[in-house]
Amino acid sequence: MGRPTERRPAAATAAGVEVSVVLPAYNEARTIENTVRVTVETLESFLPADAFEVIVAEDGCDDETPEIADRLAAEDDRIRHYHSDDRLGRGGALERAFEAADGDTLVYFDTDLATDMRHLEELVERVRSGEYDAATGSRWMPDRVADRPPKRGVPSRAYNGLVRLFLRSDLRDHQCGFKAFSRETFEALRDDVEDDHWFWDTEMLVRAQRAGFRVAEFPVDWEPKGDTKVDLVRDILGMGSQILRTWWQLTVRPRITRRVTIAAGLLLTVFALALMTLYIDPSEVISVLGDADPALVAAAAVIYVVSWPLRGIRYRDILGELGYREKAGFLTGAIFISQTGNLVFPARAGDAVRAYVVKARRNIPYPSGFASLAVERVFDLLTIAGLAGVVLVGLAATGGLDDIATVLATGVSGGSVNVSADDVRTVAYVATGVGVVAILGVLGIALSARADRNVVRAFVGRFSSDSYVDLVAGVIEQFVSDLQAVAGNRAAFTRVGLTSLAIWTVDVVTAVVVLLALGVDIDPVVLVGVSFFAVSVGNLAKVLPLSPGGVGLYEIAFTVFMAALAPVTPAAALAAAVLDHAVKNAVTVVGGVASMLSLNVSLTTAVEESADVRDRERELAESE
């Protein structure tokens, strides 16, 4: 990656510079010269001639902007050209230019000069005087003149409303490209601000308010220059995800402690159990569970234990294709710890724990840790979708599809269990959609591995013309390339696929033994076939966080299809689903605790440190 470099005349000097104005520029050949000259003239109207500098933060342009900026810098010592070979993003370009600036008052505005330049003195003096630590123009305050057509105004109001709601900002307009910061404020916040593109200045303003800095917002006259449009990648994937990320960091993560997570988990469990009464009489399920054969329940736990070394072997093979050679025993322990974390922490924070463990103990980089985990998830979805499809073909051959059609139309009722047709269809739609997406996704990635064309960047580019495409596409490309390393290698794909099949077969056999422990006595072929279908559909369905009535989609799927396709009472089927989960969770927790002790890993410490390490990895990658 090309590093930013400054193109500055040798005679230039920083003596006496108080105000540094940065103009972020990307392909501005038509306007940059006029913008620089207007900026210099405006600054000269209220500042001494040697008290300011103007920096063109040219962000990897591929037009004549660099040449124009070089010429302007050669003509006037107060003009500097800060060049980057590669795209840094608007925030990245601003941050690097502010770092190199000589002034104590750091200013930037958009090069299209949409904001009336008569406001520049007010912007500068609010910070230069020491009255405020940061200042921003606003197009949404009273007494301003701003031409905001609906295609600009509606998205802007929505964005600012979300920032005010989620990030508790007092400002009305976070996007106006007309801002100033004191050097002290910038230095205090720059390491905390993670975004390096369109959200950078919003995050600066939000964190400044949270840190107690004085932030001024004042009305400005503003006239849009050029056309605009809602950009899917920039506005939704970019800005939306950054709002959620900052909300999590500032509001949620500081409150996540072991006591809070355990209490929240218990409350959610109690709440879910209470909502189950909408569908069932819990006494009937408890009665069925009370008659379970302890020996067979223990046998189910032992069988499930067998799947864990298989998971370690599969993870070893995935990492091996990415160039990392590790022992299956260590990786099995890492998986145990991460899955235990997923039972304790919200938002699947256990996945970050696994990446932390392999990083801290085996120095596997974070990007590879997360990519390998994603590859594992894709193979899981592909396997269970395939299993469900095979059984579905068998049901079609034996007339079982009629039973599925009936349950989709009527739901399931029996004894004290009542699951509506709408809930059954929700399960079917989600499971089918997830399965189809998984299969098509793997096929597409496998085929793209053999193509010379950059399919990912071309696809993302169809939805956006913004430079944020480079950032989003880069993340997707890294994941796809790691998945291609496995999917594009026939031997590796077969090996990992067969191991995945073995893992999920053990998972289904565990459920079968649980059913036997509850006294289910039906034809073994029917029992195994229906169990494969019920477990597969249930696991596909629970990928999305949809839980009608508080009952998990896995439990609904297992209950519905087991009751519809096999002579098992709904109460017994639901009891089996509950007991099946209890057995598997118990094995996971025991294995997780043992692995934490053997590897000396604390869940809470791992979650906290994983975030810190990822931040350092990102900073290192940006500096290379």
TrEMBL record:
Membrane topology of the entry: Multi-pass membrane protein
Source superkingdom: Archaea
GO cellular-component term (any): plasma membrane
Gene3D superfamilies in the record: Spore Coat Polysaccharide Biosynthesis Protein SpsA, Chain A (3.90.550.10)
Residue intervals of the Glycosyltransferase 2-like domain: 20-188
GO molecular function, one term: glycosyltransferase activity
Keywords for the protein's UniProt record, in alphabetical order: Cell membrane, Glycosyltransferase, Membrane, Transferase, Transmembrane, Transmembrane helix
Chief location category: membrane
Intracellular or extracellular location(s): Cell membrane
Keyword Transport: no
Pfam families: Glycos_transf_2 (PF00535), LPG_synthase_TM (PF03706)
Transmembrane segments: 260-280, 292-310, 378-397, 427-447, 498-519, 556-579, 585-607
Family: Belongs to the glycosyltransferase 2 family.
Protein name: Glycosyltransferase AglD
